[in-house]
Amino acid sequence: MTYQSPSKHAGLPVGSSPKKVLVIDDSPSIRSMLRLALNNDPRLTVVGEADDAYDAREKIKALSPDVITLDIEMPRMSGLEFLDRLMRLRPMPVVMFSSLTQKGSDSAVRSLSLGAIDCIGKPQHGFNEELLSDLCERVYSASVSVSRPVSPEKNVDQNKLANRRWTKKAILVGASTGGVAAVEVFLKGLPVDCPPVVVSQHMPASFLESFSVRLNQILKQDVVLATDGAPLNFGQVLIAPGGDYHCGIKNSSGQLQCKIWKGPKREGHRPSVDEMFLTAENDAQDVIAVLLTGLGKDGAAEMKNLHDKGAFCIAQDEASSVVYGMPKVAFKLGGVHEVLPLDDIAITICNKYSSGR
């Protein structure tokens, strides 16, 4: 088929050069199709191809790409193993493009937790113009993101932090691009008996289900998908289910519970961080609101509202964010008490709002 770059693509920004793309895939036909599609977008140029991880390593050194597309199933070293090494040694924007990263797959969520910006599933029934257009848009969006080294896991002294007296009743967390890895880092820094945490992460519902399963496997807290009316218990993390639903909290006779409801997207998102924060306005003094890495401004307006009503509000800083969008807007609106590196957010909350019994 002949692929023409759709007119909906924005042109190359004035005074800038096309973003350099390295395509990594063991299939010559897939590499050829990706080269054709990406080169037809004026914002992108494919500077090289690699058929396995070892070839990719040398091409990255020689070509210094701005973004790479990466398959998972490859000879000699899997894409996930290569991604893990890459993000520790030379972090850069990565878009996974694989038959193993279909919506909701464990491989897709694992890729995002390792630092990939995006995951796109290879089509099962051939390429079409809509898919290739979407591919170009997502590769370009990834190319203008900033990848960070994977944070080394900190050894949290759970014995020292356990059985503490908390002065807040819930922690509400919003995140988007780069949020899978950021949420993991944040939650690992909290003690097992921390206040209930409700997370609204911008992802499709199938991804969020896999995300909750993964978190439940690697965290000491109990991690579940949120359901309407579920009580908010200490030591529990509730993940917004997404899909047709928003997620927030409600107060039932002094007991905080989850609130799940159908509603239109807000700021283009469902689950929406703004909608989650809005549900907490009457209980703001019992709430800690956290806004992590993400594109756009979702969560910023209602974080300002919570800030003004007595919630303690934290935004992730630019240096540790993949995309400094949502936290930046919240800070500019005056809705943030502290701007902190990702690694410092959990311990700051522990030190400020808990004490030994």
What would a concise description of this structure say?
The protein has 357 residues and is α/β, with parallel strands linked by helices. Helices cover 34% and strands 22% of the residues.
Can you put this structure into words, describing what you see?
The chain has helices at residues 28-39, 53-63, 79-89, 106-114, 129-143, 158-161, 179-188, 205-218, 273-279, 300-308, 326-332, 342-353; strands at 19-24, 44-50, 67-70, 94-98, 118-121, 164-166, 170-175, 197-201, 222-225, 236-239, 245-252, 255-262, 287-291, 312-316, 338-340, 354-356. Residues 1-8 have low confidence and may be disordered. The strands form four sheets. A seven-stranded parallel sheet has the order 9-10-8-7-13-14-15, sandwiched between helices. A five-stranded parallel sheet has the order 2-1-3-4-5, with helices on both faces. 34% of the residues lie in helices and 22% in strands. α4 (106-114) links the parallel β4 (94-98) and β5. By secondary structure, it is α/β, with parallel strands linked by helices.
Query: What class, by secondary structure content?
Result: alpha/beta
Q: What's the CATH H-level homologous superfamily of the largest domain?
A: Methylesterase CheB, C-terminal domain
Distance between the termini: 69 Å
Low-pLDDT segments:
1-8
What is the C-alpha radius of gyration, as a whole number of Å?
Answer: 21 Å
Helix coverage percent of residues?
25-40%
Number of strands: 16
Order of the strands making up the biggest sheet = 9-10-8-7-13-14-15
Which H/E pattern describes the elements?
EHEHEHEHEHHEEHEHEEEEHEHEHEHE
| Biggest pleated-sheet summary | 7 strands, parallel
The figure for the number of domains is 2
Query: Which class of the largest domain in CATH terms?
Result: Alpha Beta
Q: Which whole number gives the mean pLDDT?
A: 89
Shape: elongated
Bin the strand percentage: 15-25%
Tally the helices: what do you get? 12
The name of the CATH topology of the largest domain is: Rossmann fold
> What is the CATH architecture term of the largest domain?
3-Layer(aba) Sandwich
